[in-house]
C-alpha cells in the first residue's frame, strides 16, 4: 500500500516538475520574443517618424502651390519646379515585423500572463495594413493621374533637375548634382499649370491624401510608444 502511494506521489512530482519546466521554457521564449519586439518597435518608430516628416513636407509643397494658384504667395524663381518634384515622391514605410509575427502567428501570445498585452499585440498587425493601403493610394494617385498629366502638360526633365532629395529629409540638397541633370529641349514655365483647374484639383487630392497619412502616422507613433511601454513594464515585472 505504502509503495503504491510512493509511486503515485513520485509520478505527480515528476509531472509537476515537467509542467513547471515546460512553462518556464515557454515564459523564457516569450520574453526573448518580447525583447526582440521592443527593438523591432524602436526601429519601426524611427522609420515612421521619417515617414511622418515626408508626409508633412509633401503636404506643405502641395499646399504652397495651391496658395500660389490663388496669389496668396509668390513663388521664387525655380521654386515651382522643386515643388513639383516633391509631389512626385510616394511613401515607403515598410517595417520589419518578424518578432511580432513570431508571437502572433504561432499562438505564443497565449504564453503571456497579461490579457491586456495579448489583446494589444493581437490587433497590432492591422496597423500595418492601414499603412499599406495609404501607400497604395498615394502611388496610384501618382501613377494614374499626376504623372500622366505632367508628361503631357509639363517638362519632366525640368522637374527631375529640380530634385532636392526626398521631402522631409534633413539632408536634402539644393539642386540635383550636375551628373544627374537631364537635358531639357522643351523648357516650360510650370507656373502656368496653376491656372489649370484640373491641376489644382490634383493638388487638392494630394493635400487630402497627405493629411490623412500624416494624421494616421502620428496616431500610430503614439500607439507604438504606448505598446512599447506596456512591453517594457511586462518584462520588468517578470
Structure description:
The protein is elongated. It has one domain (2-236). Helices cover 70% and strands 0% of the residues. It is mostly helical and 238 residues long. Mean pLDDT is 83; it is low at 5-23. The chain has seven helices and no strands.
Give a concise summary.
The chain is mostly helical and 238 residues long. 70% of the residues lie in helices and 0% in strands.
> Helical element count?
7
Measured as a percent range, the helix fraction is: over 70%
The structural domain count equals 1
Q: Cα distance, first to last residue? A: 43 Å
- The number of distinct β-strands equals 0
| Shape annotation | elongated
Beta fraction: under 5%
Low-confidence regions: 5-23
Structural class: mainly alpha
What's the pLDDT, averaged over the residues?
A: 83
Instruction: Outline the biggest β-sheet.
Output: none
Return Rg in Å. 27 Å
Order of helices and strands: HHHHHHH
Key phrases:
238 residues, mainly alpha, 70% helix
Topology:
Elements: H1 2-69, H2 79-86, H3 98-104, H4 115-123, H5 125-153, H6 156-161, H7 197-236
Amino acid at each position: 500500500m505504502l509503495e503504491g502511494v510512493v509511486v503515485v506521489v513520485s509520478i505527480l512530482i515528476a509531472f509537476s516538475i515537467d509542467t513547471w519546466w515546460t512553462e518556464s521554457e515557454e515564459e523564457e521564449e516569450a520574453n526573448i520574443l518580447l525583447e526582440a519586439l521592443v527593438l523591432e518597435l524602436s526601429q519601426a518608430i524611427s522609420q515612421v517618424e521619417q515617414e511622418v516628416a515626408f508626409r508633412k513636407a509633401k503636404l506643405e509643397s502641395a499646399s504652397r502651390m495651391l496658395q500660389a494658384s490663388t496669389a496668396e504667395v509668390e513663388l521664387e524663381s525655380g521654386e515651382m519646379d522643386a515643388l513639383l518634384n516633391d509631389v512626385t515622391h510616394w511613401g515607403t514605410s515598410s517595417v520589419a515585423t518578424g518578432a511580432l509575427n513570431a508571437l502572433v502567428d504561432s499562438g505564443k501570445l497565449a504564453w503571456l500572463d497579461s490579457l491586456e498585452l495579448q489583446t494589444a499585440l493581437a490587433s497590432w498587425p492591422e496597423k500595418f495594413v492601414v499603412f499599406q493601403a495609404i501607400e497604395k493610394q498615394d502611388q496610384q494617385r501618382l501613377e494614374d493621374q499626376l504623372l500622366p498629366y505632367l508628361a503631357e502638360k509639363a517638362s519632366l526633365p525640368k522637374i527631375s533637375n529640380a530634385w532636392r532629395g526626398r521631402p522631409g529629409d534633413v539632408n536634402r540638397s539644393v539642386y540635383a548634382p550636375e551628373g544627374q541633370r537631364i537635358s531639357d529641349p522643351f523648357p516650360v514655365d510650370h507656373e502656368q499649370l496653376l491656372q489649370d483647374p484640373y491641376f489644382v484639383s490634383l493638388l487638392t487630392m494630394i493635400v487630402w491624401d497627405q493629411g490623412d497619412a500624416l494624421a494616421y502616422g502620428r496616431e500610430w507613433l503614439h500607439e507604438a510608444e504606448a505598446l512599447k511601454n506596456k512591453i517594457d513594464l511586462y518584462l520588468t515585472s517578470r
